[in-house]
Amino acid sequence: MLGIEMMNGVKVSDEILGTFAPIIVYWLYSGIYILLGSLDDYRLHTRKDEDEKNLVSKSDVVKGVLLQQAVQAVVASLLFTLNAAAFPSAITGSDSNPAHAQVTSLIVLARQFLVGMMVLDTWQYFMHRYMHQNKFLYKHIHSQHHRLVVPYAFGALYNHPVEGLLLDTVGGALSFLVSGMSPRASIFFFSFATLKTVDDHCGLWLPGNLFHLLFRNNSAYHDIHHQLYGNKYNFSQPFFVMWDRILGTYMPYSLEKNVNGGFEARPSKEYKED
C-alpha cells in the first residue's frame, strides 16, 4: 500500500488521504469564503438576504454536511479496499525509462481526470434533473438543498442523506472506477471537485477567480438554478454546461452591478413555465 510521507515523518496511505483530504479541503476553502463574505461589493446576494431568505439555520447546515461527509468517508474506504483487492497491480506499476514513464503518467492522469469529470457531470446532471422532475423526490429529498435560496460556501454539500449518497457518493465512485485512476490520483481529483463545488455555491463573484475563467459553470450560473425562476434550468454540475445546452435546460444570464453594491445574476430572456 503506497503512501505519502508527511512533514513529521509519518507515512499516510493514499487511501486515507483520498478519503479525508476532500473533507479537509471543503472546510478550509469554505472558511476562506466566510472571510471573503464581508466583501459586499462582490456578493451575488446581500448578507440580509442570506439571513432572511434561507429556510434552514447555519447550524443545521453544518450538521447535514458532516453527516454526508461521514457517509462518503465510509463508502470511499470500502471502495479503495475493493479496488485494491481487484486490481493489486494498479499501484505497483513501473517503467524502465523514468523520463518516459513521467510523461506517460501525466498523459494518463490528464485522461483520467477528463473521463472522471465527464462521468461525474453526466451522472449528476441526469440524477439532479430527475430529482426536480419527480415531485415525490423533489418534495421529500432534493428540496432540502433548495432551502438555501441564497447559497453560501459551506452549504455546498447540504443535501438530504439519500441525495448525498446518490449524487455525490455514487457519482464519485463511478468517476473513480470508470476513469481507472489510482487512490493517489483520486486525492487530487476529489479535492479539485470539492473546491469547484464549494466555489459554485460561494455566492461571490470575485475578480480573477480561476474557476470563473476556466468554466462556464460557476457561482452565477448555479445561483440562477437556486432561484424560483431558474429551478428548471442549469442542472449541470460541477464542471461543464454541455448537458444543459444539449438538452435545452440552459438558461443564459447576465451579471449586473447593483446600485447598492454587489452583483445580481439575471436571466437574459423570459422563460415560461412548462
Automatic annotation (TrEMBL):
Assigned keywords, A-Z: Membrane, Transmembrane, Transmembrane helix
Q: Which GO terms describe its biological process?
A: lipid biosynthetic process
Report the domain of life of the source organism: Eukaryota
Q: Where are the transmembrane segments?
A: 20-39, 73-91, 103-126
- The keyword RNA-binding is assigned to this record: no
Where is this protein localized, as stated in its record?
A: Membrane
Q: Name one GO molecular function term.
A: oxidoreductase activity
Identify the InterPro entries for this entry: Fatty_acid_hydroxylase (IPR006694), Sterol_Desaturase_Related (IPR050307)
A Gene Ontology cellular component where this protein is annotated is:
membrane
For the Fatty acid hydroxylase domain, which residue ranges apply? 113-249
Similarity section: Belongs to the sterol desaturase family.
Q: Which PANTHER family match?
A: STEROL DESATURASE (PTHR11863)
- Protein name stated in the entry: Fatty acid hydroxylase domain-containing protein
What species is this protein from?
Answer: Salvia splendens
